[in-house]
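Fold these two proteins, one after the other.
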Amino acid sequence: MLKTPGWEWMIVVYFFVGGIAGGAYFTAALADTFGTRRDGTVTRVGYLLALPLVALCGILLIADLGVPTRFMNMLRVFKFWNPMSIGAWGVGIFGLFSVVSAGLSFSERLATLRRGVGLVGMIFGFFLASYTGVLLSTTAQPFWGEARLMGALFLASGASTGMAAVSLVLLLIGGATGEGWRKIRWADRSSMVIELVVLGVFLAALGAAARPITTGHFAPLFWGGLVGAGLLVPLGLDIVAHRVKVVGALSAVLVLVGGFVLRYVVLMSIQS
């Protein structure tokens, strides 16, 4: 019998926060590269949001290891065959890009440099958002080991939760106006549709192997919390009343809840 890893809330939060950090950075880089000056607030919010979130990822990873020096030891030598070493290096490198991008977001004189840094940093943001799913799919655990599209699903979820987080911050700081706000809402709707499609393909590819999350104890959370409240409801709200700010806030919160539920049911389903 295979021994389950015994991961609990700390790792669930780490997976969740890492997805948001990667998605927020991706949102900022897109707005910076393909947007206009009017999208400057979206760019700044995305970069500034990614920075503390990736720092929190490092803190959670260190806390889970138990001894802080273990994290530093992982950074001394890059071991491409060790998933934990890859993860530690990914968090560290993306953290450096987040620091630089956040600093450059306050200077328009360095906009060209910032865009270049953002495009490269976006690769590591994608890595942070998706590698946790890839890590699970490379294990020998039932369900996890058969879920080859887990990385793609986590990446799609990271994009939607990152955009939702940026939208929510814009609402809180009074930046939910103008062209930038309309673009971020449209992008968030598109990301939810993509996540639904990826989720459908993910379940179809798994077939009966998906039962740990689609039936039994975790089924209400999966269907109600992720598919319903986390994707279908906010998507419907955005389509019907996307101009109403309070609806935008509710939609963003629901997407974030759905992203957390996804990681919770996936991680806990084989450990209950």
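Now the second one:
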Amino acid sequence: MDLAYIVSGLSVGVLVGLTGVGGGSLMTPLLVFLFGFAPTTAVGTDLLFAAITKSGGVAVHHRSHGSVEWKIVGLLCAGSLPAALAVIFVLEYFDIPRKELALVMSNSLGIALILTALALFFRNRLKKAGLESESHQPGRFHHLQAPATILVGFGLGVLVTLSSVGAGALGTVALFFLYPRLPTIKIVGTDLAHAIPLTTVAGLGHLYMGNVDFVLLGSLLVGSLPGIWVGSHLSAKIPENFLRPLLASVLMLIGLKFVWPMFA
């Protein structure tokens, strides 16, 4: 195991514990820019990393808080899992050159980071908009919730499989808007529960394609698990209204760096 990878896992774990933002938003760019991993390897390894680290959080939400809405999880999975399998099939069997595949995944990563930053900036406004539409026309859009949830799942499935980013912040914001009357703890627990099958299916697909580095994966896990514990305990001491905009700004800059070659 590499000490630098362990320290990186620890640092990202602390930030995840502090902010609740998914590790993919932080870990994948770190692996690409700091350690020089190909986007394909960074995404594939991070997906399995996410599947393992999120499992403990779901156990807590389900057993201790009862905060997972399994019906919503099922609707999200109905869209995301077929989408993830379809993306893996296209990437593996359409004989995309390795260089072009890396470019596609790099651009997807940049777009996902920009969307995540926007979600962090405007999360409270979107939640408020959902509550206002519900109060003005109670029940009017309920018949559209199920298909809209499946559609959101499909979009997340494509984005997460290509970039490893989006299952956390983007999924949470979408659920806030679609289900504005659900308590925050249930939104978080439900989104976390959906992320596990999605990242597992996408991660196993990347494993089949040879995009997972197991030495890197083990090192990141060794560092991140205590990091998440430390960050969770520190989170009460740092104001959210300071930390989230700062993190969103950093993610926006990183995302723009990824997509800039598209326009250069």
